[in-house]
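Could you show me just one protein sequence together with its fold in token form as a worked example?
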Amino acid sequence: MEAFAEVLPNIPEKILDRDELNSEVSKFYDEVNTRLVTGLTTGSDGEWYGPATAASAHRLIGMFRDHLNGHVDEILEKLSSQALERMKKGAYRGRPVPREQMLWHYGQIVHQFPKKQTTEQAKAIRDLSALDGHEKDERVYALARVLQASQRVGDAETTKNVLLKLYACENDRRPLGQGIIGDNVKGSLNVLEALWPKLTSAHKKRIGEMIDALHRRLVALNTVGLVVAISNEAKAATKIFSEAGAKSASAGSGATEFLHRDYRVVMCEGKAIPGVLDAARTLIDQYKVKCLIMIGVAGSLGKEEMDNTGKSRFLGADRGDVVVATALAPFRIYDKVREEIKNAEVPFRGKTWRTIPTDPTLFGFAHVAAEALFPRGAGYHEGLIVTGTGVKDAIPAKDEILREFPSGLAVETESYVVGLISLNAEVPYLIIRGISDRAGGDKAEEKDTPAETKKQSEAASAAVGLALKVVESLSQRW
């Protein structure tokens, strides 16, 4: 509740509004009032029971005193009395308190209450030997609170000793990362809380520069490669990433860079199998991408059928829909001629592959993103995408593909090659296709017309929109 009170001016009302917070604090206040006589304790063995409990309650109720009813000043006075009550023979109010926890409690008391009321507690926290031999996280918890206290009362010698012990708890193999001090996030934040008020503007600026530099490095090291085959797909990607706040620029070797504060995407374009092969290799070898996403348009392997009423309907992925590959299959990429033409399996690392799977982690991100973009799954499909040489835009060609791969959802001309290159380089990959035609002759009728351009652009935009959400999700891991 104290944390919400601190950040409430800077967070959306939909997370928590002031009235809700006031109500929660009122409930807390009533509970404190009820338990004050017997002591603010849960009674559990693992509880760090002591005067800091009363000090925390005093701090929170004091922040909200204008919103609380009843004898608030009287309650605050009783809490203050309990917080300032000293420990005797290693016990507080009749319960034993370990020495290392005593430092944690007294550190908070000295930091919160006037110096003249905490003279004895300030003397007690100078001896840090009670922390020797304890786990790093417990040491950090206590040291952070002692650091707050020693700075509050101007005890330079204790501050120096605390900092030396904190340095000993630092894991310098993970700078500015999770668990830098005591391998514990909470301990690290407690230390930051203690140090931050004492930092100058110059210190804070320097820390900001360090974090920004680290962030830029993480973004660069986690570059995502985007492969497209035609200009309509490239234009759709440029438009959508730019609208999302990424700056686009030439990256050399015919590549385009989309640079956002949270991610870096490099896009390469290549027509048909030779061009896509070259684009994928450039992204992997030159730009050292951490994963590859191929977006583009495809023809549907769905079929038009008559229902019981004689009405025609199209079953499968239709124009404007998005298909994410669970696996890829080759169709006539590599034919062997014996007695008949056979759709041969493709050799890879001493084996032959009929289908190859998509990276499960990237697919998982796409699945989660699609749930938000496509309510109730409308317009979204997951399954097998078939790669075939040459444009497959006729019912007989579609029937032939489906005899070979009955579960196929879409057909295009490049993805299988991207899958093989990615497998060979051990780079995770994902294929996202927007359906631009039904692959039943409609594409040929619209070839090189404004209608074809429009449908391809719409289909490519749908695929890019999902790819953008995947990239945004990936960036949160960095």
Summary: Residues 349 and 424 are 8 Å apart (CA to CA). The two ends are 29 Å apart (CA to CA).
